[in-house]
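Supplementary Note 3. Input sequence used for the single-chain structure prediction.
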Amino acid sequence: MTRKLMIATRLVARAALIVGSFLTTPTAQAQPPADFTRTDLQHHDLSAPGREAVQVRVDIAPGKAFGRHTHPGEEIIYVLAGTLEYDVDGRAPATLKAGDVLFIPAGTIHAAKNVGNVTASELATYIVEKDKPLLTLVK
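The predicted structure, written as discrete structure tokens, is reproduced below.
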């Protein structure tokens, strides 16, 4: 291998390492506490400019609550398992079981609590503004 080729190979390798380190750097977003598991299922741009669809599965341990928060768009919830109580501003608390659904308008403050004795799961579909945090915690 010629000296010039060796130098070029080293430069390409270094550049790849630098780019790779940026691709694996986590982004700063509000993440659920340890008693919650959020599994990202799909994420797609929509035909409506500036909007995207995000779908996640959320698992909540028995007796645990996820505090008040908002989303930059609508949230459509389908309860997969367990029993969850939702506290949505402007509404009476709602207790939902597997098979039940809930719609939360854009920007509405809400919270969820697992009121059962098994891990509860929901399928959450968000229709949100692009380039905004999916979740913002509220005091």
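The mean pLDDT is 84. The chain has one domain: 36-137.
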